[in-house]
Amino acid sequence: MPDTIREALRRNWYWFLLAGGLIAPLLAPNDYVIGVLARICLYSMLALGLNIVVGFAGLLDIGYVAFFGIGSYVYAFLASPHFGLHLPFVPVMVIVTLSAAIAGILIGAPTLRLHGDYLAIVTLGFGEITYLCLVNLDRPINITGGPSGLIRIDPPQFFGHVVDSNIEYYYMFLLTLGCMLFASIRLRDSRIGWAWRAIREDELAAASMGVNTTVSKLQAFALGATFAGFAGGLLASWQKSVFPDNFLFQESINVLAMVILGGMGSVLGVILGATIIVALPEVFRDLSVYRLLAFGALMMVVMIVRPQGLLPEGFATPRKKAEEQPPAPATASAAKGASKP
Amino acid sequence: MTSPMADLLSILPQQLVFGLALGTVYGLIALGYTMVYGVLLMINFAHGEVFMIGAYIGWAVLAFLLNHAVGGLHPIWVLPVLLLPAMVICGVLGMTIERFAYRPLYLRGGSRLAPLISAFGASIFLQNAVMLTQGARMKVYMTNTLFPRTWRFDIFGVNVSVLLLVMIAVSMSLTWGLILLVQKTTLGRSIRAVSEDREMASVMGVSVGQVVGLTFFLGSALGGAAGVLVGLYYTQIDFVMGYSAGLKAFTAAVLGGIGNIKGAMVGGLLLGIIESVAVTFINPAFKDVVAFAVLILVLMFRPEGIFGETLSDRKKV
User: Fold this and answer.
1) In contact, B264 and B226? CB cutoff 8 Å
2) For B58, left (φ over 0), alpha (ψ -120 to 50), or beta?
3) Domain span at residue B291?
4) Is the complex ipTM more than 0.90?
5) CA-CA to B208 of 20 to 30 Å: which in A89, A196, A334, B177?
6) Per-residue pLDDT for A328 more than 90?
7) Cβ contact, residue pair A122, B123, below 8 Å
8) CATH architecture of A2-335
C-alpha cells in the first residue's frame, strides 16, 4: 500500500504542491508568516530560472542576481515618480521581461566560448558590474538613485483593484510560480531541454549529434534571465522600493545554494531548496548570527556528502519509466547481434 | 580647457606609484590562485578569506606588541614578527581547507562545479567565523607607530613613503623566493611534475597529496603576508576585505596567465597600473568596474593571459 501512495506522489507531486500552496496561507498564524510564504514563492521563481541555466544546461552562472536587479529597476523606472512614469502593471511586466531576456542574451553571447570556471568568473564580473552601476549611476545624471535606491513604486493594479495585502501578493506569486513550474517541466521535456542536457553532459558530442550549441546556450541564458527579471518586477511591486543591496553577490550565491541543495536539474528539488533556504533562518531566528556560518558549512558538507542534492534529478520521474530502462540494453545488444551477420 | 587635463596628468605619477605598490601585493595574492590552479585546475575561492585572516593575525600581533610596550618598535624586527605568524597560520589554514573542503571532491573526480561551490561555502564560513569572533566593526592597524608619517621623501614631486617601498620589496622578494623554490629544489620539481600530469607524477613516485598540500601551504602563506602588507597600507581591515581583494588578485592571475608564477606578479603590476590610470582619468567610483571589465575582456579574448600557454582540451573542460 505505501508503494501505491509513493507512486501517486511521484506522478502527481505538482498537484499536491499546488494544493499545499493554496491552503498554506489559511493555516498561517499571522501576516508575517504569509510574507515569508510569499518570499518563498519569489525565491522559488529565481531558483527555477537559475535551474534552467545551471541545472539543465550546465552553465555555471554566479552573477544571476543581476537579472533580478535589472527586472526590479526596469519596473521601478516605469512605475514610480522617479522618471514620472506610471505605466499600468501588465505592460510594465512585459517590458521588464523583455529587457531581462535581452540582458540575458547580451551577457550570454560573449560568454559562449567559455567553459566551467571561466564562465563562472565572467558571469560574476557581469554581476558585480551591474551592482556597481546600480550604486554609482546617480551622478552626474541620476538614473538609478544610487545607494539609497528608488522608492514609492506603484503597486500592481487589476481592473481598478490595487493589490496591497500580503495574502493577495502571495496568491499572485503562487500563480506566477505555478506558470513557471509548468514552463520549466515543459521545457525540460521538450527538444530544447534534451539539447541542454546533451550540452551539459558533453558539449562536443552534443554538437556532433546536430545540437546547435550556440542557440541552445543563448536560449538557456535568455529564459533563465526572463524568470529572474519577472521575479524582479514582482519584488519591486511588492517592496514598493528597490535598493542596490537587494542584489548583492551574496544573493546570487543564495539562489545557487537553493539549486545545489535541492538538486541541480530537479524542478521539485530546487523548490524544496528555495523553501529550506528561505524558511530555515526564520525558524532559527534566535540563532540568526550563526546562520551564514552554518550556511557555508552546509554548502561544503552537501558537496561532499550528497553532491546530487536532496531531491536529485530524476527523482520525480514515474517509476514506470525506470522499469522500462533495464530491457533497453538487451534490445540494444539484440540489435547489435542482428546487425552482426 | 587645458588646465583640468594638466591637473590630471600632474597627479598621474603619484597614482602610478600607489598603483605599483598595490599591484605587487595583488601579485602576491595572485600567486596563491595561480599555484593552486597549476596543480589542481581549480579556483580556490577561499583564498581571499585566507588573505583577510592574514591581515587579522598581523593586526593581533601588532596590537599585542603595542600593549606590552615592547620598547622602540623598529620595523626591521617588527615586520618579520608580523609576517611570520601570519604566513605560518595562513599556510596551515590553507592546507586545512584543502584537506576538508576540496580533497574529498577532487579525489572522487566528477563535476567541476562541486569544488567551486565547496570553495564558496568555505569562503562564507571563514568570513562569518571571523565576523563572529572578531566583531563586524573594522580594526585599525597602528601603522604610524611602525612607519611614522614623516618617513617619506620627494622624488620629482612624487611623494614616496618608506612603507610603499617596503611593500614592494617584501612582495618582490617573496615572489623571487617562490620562483627559486619552484625552479631549483626537489620540492619545486615535484610541484611542477604534479601540475604537468598528476597521474604520471604519482606513478613516478611523487606523493600527490603531499604536493597539493604543500602548494596550498605556500600559496596561503603568501596570501597571509599580503594581508599584513595591505593592513599596514590601508590601516583599516574588516571581515569582507578578502572578497574584492581576492577578485582583484584573481584578475591579476588571469591577466598574467593562470598557472604561471611570473605571470601572476606581472599581472598584479599591470592591474595596479590600470587601476591607478582609471582612478586618475575616470570616476574613482568606477575603479572596480574597470578591473572587472579587464577581467572579462581578458577571459573572452585571451583566456591564456599574457604568459600562459594555450590550455589543452583536457584542461579546458
Assistant:
1) no
2) alpha
3) 240-317
4) no
5) B177
6) no
7) no
8) Orthogonal Bundle (1.10)
